[in-house]
Amino acid sequence: MNVEQAAKQLEALGSPARLRIYRALVRAGHAGLPVRQLQERVGIPAASTLSHHLQRLVLTGLVSQERQATTLICRAVYPAMDALIGYLAEECCADERCGATGEEAA
């Protein structure tokens, strides 16, 4: 993952409403949630507002949507989530000297 993609995804998750939406979809698992159910779970009264937030998450690759007859199913894209988490953690403590105590590192 590159820094631009990570920044876009983190920016999309920077909205409290979008973060609630995303967490609800992650919690729902691979089956996802129909839009109406998602709307009820996150408490967004206006369908157009929910649609706007979902579109941002879809554009960044964090959420996918699939139409099943008249129902729109939303799902978290787990490989994208894993990639973002991996990007954030991959260089954890990379500049820290191995085995150094607090005094030795100073």
UniProtKB/TrEMBL annotation:
It comes from the Bacteria. Keywords: DNA-binding, Transcription, Transcription regulation. The keyword Transcription regulation applies. Coiled coil: none annotated. The keyword Signal does not apply. CDD domains: HTH_ARSR (cd00090). GO terms for molecular function: DNA binding; DNA-binding transcription factor activity. It holds the Pfam family HTH_20. This is HTH arsR-type domain-containing protein. InterPro entries: ArsR-like_HTH, HTH_ArsR_DNA-bd_dom, Metal_resp_trans_reg, WH-like_DNA-bd_sf, WH_DNA-bd_sf. Residues 8-90 form the HTH arsR-type domain.
